[in-house]
Amino acid sequence: xxxxxxxxxxxxxxxxxxxxxxxxxxxxxxxxxxxxxxxxxxxxxxxxxxxxxxxxxxxxxxxxxxxxxxxxxxxxxxxxxxxxxxxxxxxxxxxxxxxxxxxxxxxxxxxxxxxxxxxxxxxxxxxxxxxxxxxxxxxxxxxxxxxxxxxxxxxxxxxxxxxxxxxxxxxxxxxxxxxxxxxxxxxxxxxxxxxxxxxxxxxxxxxxxxxxxxxxxxxxxxxxxxxxxxxxxxxxxxxxxxxxxxxxxxxxxxxxxxxxxxxxxxxx
Length: 268
Ligand code: SAM
Hints:
With 268 residues, the chain is an alpha/beta fold. The chain has two domains: 11-193, 3-Layer(aba) Sandwich (Rossmann fold); 204-263, rRNA adenine dimethylase, C-terminal domain (Helicase, Ruva Protein, domain 3, Orthogonal Bundle), CATH 1.10.8.100. 34% of the residues lie in helices and 19% in strands. It has helices at residues 21-31, 50-57, 67-77, 116-124, 139-146, 156-164, 204-216, 222-226, 232-236, 251-263; strands at residues 17-18, 38-42, 60-64, 83-87, 105-110, 130-138, 165-173, 178-179, 186-193. Strand 2 (38-42), helix 2 (50-57) and strand 3 form a beta-alpha-beta unit. The longest helix has 13 residues, at 204-216. It is elongated. The model has no long low-confidence stretch (mean pLDDT 94). The structure holds S-adenosylmethionine.
């Protein structure tokens, strides 16, 4: 095993360490690290993908919260000129300090599953700086990220992520690829911020509010969601079938409705 130092896995930090060399190479191949790129690895742990990433790119910044793992990584890599360790909670990291310019960051990692949704939303704040992200996540979360209308996994996470990024589900990873083994299946996903948003909205806060409100009552019709925002005359002019449920409307539908609400000066 390539991973260096002894460590007892901590559940509260979502620690499941990759140990399958074949899966590790598939992940690194999917990332395609190259010299000159600004690579940031979240949660390097015992270094399963850190070592091959560093070998192929020559430069890598890692963010690790666990003090013991951070000190093991420091001992192992501190002599490597291209290695930088940020010992911190990744949710507190200001990614704008890590590169200058647009679309320069490549963010990677086998993410701690307990913080994956807040982390994805944290990273979206920096979308203009990010060239792409390749993550291992719980399979169920990857299904939700990639789902389209009509799919039971489709919801707020799908719409908000697809608003900002192209979502590609790459491959599944079984529990036995890790130590300790997680109870759930995992998958690798690539998230690439769009150079030009496919469905830009005029008022992003309103769009967020609309999507949140719609999926807080996903069994009700979209008419029911919208009646708090528009009167019946305005509702009947909307270019969508109001008898549909929130899960049947596309990102483009939500964007269109948000712009109409914005024109009406509607707030909920
Ligand atoms: N990359 C390693 C691997 O694939 O074997 C470890 C992956 S493990 C699923 C998640 C890693 O994220 C652990 O090293 C854990 O300590 C770290 N971690 C958990 N919460 C974190 C946080 N809030 N900020 C930074 N790192 C965190």
